[in-house]
Design goal:
Blueprint: H1 2-9, E1 12-14, H2 17-24, E2 29-33, H3 34-38, E3 44-50, H4 63-74, H5 80-95, H6 100-104, E4 110-118, E5 122-129, E6 135-142, H7 144-149, E7 152-153, H8 159-169, E8 173-186, E9 192-194, E10 197-206, H9 211-222, E11 226-230, H10 235-245, E12 252-253, H11 258-268, E13 272-278, E14 281-287, E15 291-295, H12 301-306, E16 309-313, H13 318-323, E17 326-328, H14 334-368, E18 376-377, E19 380-381, H15 386-405
Main location: membrane
GO molecular function, one term: copper ion binding
InterPro entries: ATPase_P-typ_cyto_dom_N, ATPase_P-typ_P_site, HAD-like_sf, HAD_sf, P_typ_ATPase, P_typ_ATPase_HD_dom
């Protein structure tokens, strides 16, 4: 109780109580989400490569229509990347307004039929074209794999990948946009007929790394704690960020979906076989790997719930906060170091109190029960009066409480980036 109060004083809300603190004191590995956790969660579009106008891309004759498709598609998601893409597209639409004739009939060109979000992959929107009763447009926005699995391809060769790879090396997230025309008539097997989709453009998004991330990761490594990074981003971008932060590339798990993050945390929790030696004998001892997960978004909630210590960024989504045992109210990663340090000192204090209580009672109980009555000191038998024994018992509890209250004077470790 004292420790949770001290934690709250330092901006750490421990919803899991003593059990969460006990697990935090034994953490051997910490997995961080990238976007919004190691980064500040305010991404911005830095580069674009738009393949419109293009004769192969039908029903998107101009840039203004492309940006409108993109705005409406990304309105189906609350992901930070979707929000920044919407804002960027709105600004582009202002700088590329349709001409007078286009503007007059713009609202009647199409209407939104359905918007679907695929966690960790992207967003798909279906638009009904006016005057085209048998045709609709499907607009995709997400990862390259998401675009590819929906049969959208690059019309003009692989040069787009060359551009994208350059952006990835700069630790930027690449978002792909694809378009496909779907016929409402059925083909020979009863499915809706559709043309092969095409890539309409790519966007590069950059998110600033939190200043304290460098310091926190360095300190965790110095403490002997393994640091992992989980991201739905592509491997090239993930490893580029890891190199900047000092995370081992082998500890980067990239291109994973929300449920796969949970699976990865489970794998980190597997029991490790440690060989113990006792004289001339040796035996295997199983030891659990205690894993903490730090995240901020809906995509992180399964992993936060699975981990031994789920730590949510206070400014993150409500679902992530509800799934976590610990909440960093100030959204400062340095509080992770405070949590680990406080939990270790708390259970060091618990062990000290137990040792003191054991020592106190192993001496006091025999003394109070008359075990030393046969011993005489100055012609007096060694025996405690009942009122003295009662007072000693009360003082035992008081001393333990006072010892615990010394945690009130706890000061966090030096946790400022140098």
């Amino acid at each position: 109780m004292v420790a949770t109060g001290v934690a709250a004083k330092h901006g750490i809300l421990v919803r899991g109580g003593g059990a969460a603190l006990q697990q935090a004191s034994k953490v051997t590995a910490i997995a961080f989400d990238k976007t919004g956790t190691l980064t500040i969660g305010q991404p911005s579009v830095t580069n674009e490569l738009i393949l419109i106008p293009n004769p192969s891309i039908k029903h998107v004759e101009n840039l203004s229509q492309f940006w409108r498709y993109l705005i409406l598609t990304e309105s189906g998601s609350d992901h930070p990347l979707s929000r920044c893409i919407r804002e960027y597209a709105k600004e582009k639409l202002k700088s590329n307004p349709p001409d007078t004739n286009e503007a007059a009939g713009e609202e009647e060109n199409f209407k939104v039929l359905k918007i679907q979000e695929f966690g960790g992959k992207g967003v798909k929107a279906t638009f009904k074209l006016s005057g085209q009763h048998s045709k609709s447009v499907e607009f995709y926005c997400g990862s390259k794999e998401f675009i590819t699995e929906n049969d959208c391809h690059v019309v003009d060769g692989n040069w787009v990948d060359v551009v994208a790879d350059g952006w990835k090396r700069d630790a930027k997230t690449i978002v792909y946009c694809g378009i496909k025309i779907v016929e409402s008539k059925r083909n020979s097997i009863g499915a809706l007929a559709s043309q092969r989709g095409v890539l309409a453009g790519i966007l590069a998004i950059s998110d600033v790394i939190r200043p304290e991330s460098f310091f926190v990761i360095e300190k965790l490594k110095n403490l002997g704690i393994q640091v992992w990074m989980l991201t739905g981003d592509n491997y090239s971008t993930g490893t580029a960020v890891a190199r900047i932060l000092g995370v081992n590339e082998s500890n980067v798990l990239a291109g994973i979906l929300p449920n796969e993050k949970k699976i990865m945390v489970e794998k980190l929790q597997v029991k490790l076989q440690q060989k113990q030696h006792l004289g001339c004998f040796s035996f295997n001892k199983e030891k659990n790997s205690v894993v903490a997960m730090v995240g901020d978004g809906i995509n992180d909630s399964p992993a936060l719930a699975q981990s031994d210590v789920g730590i949510a960024i206070g400014a993150g989504s409500d679902i992530a906060v509800e799934s976590a045992q610990v909440i960093l109210v100030r959204s400062d990663l340095r509080d992770v170091l405070t949590l680990l340090d406080l939990s270790k000192k708390t259970f060091k204090k618990v062990k000290m109190n137990l040792f003191y209580a054991f020592l106190y009672n192993i001496i006091g109980i025999p003394l109070a029960s008359g075990c030393f009555y046969f011993i005489k000191i100055n012609e007096n038998h060694v025996l405690l009066s009942p009122w003295v024994a009662g007072l000693a018992m009360a003082l035992s509890s008081v001393s333990v409480v006072l010892s615990s209250l010394t945690l009130k004077f706890y000061k966090p470790p030096l946790s400022k980036p140098t």
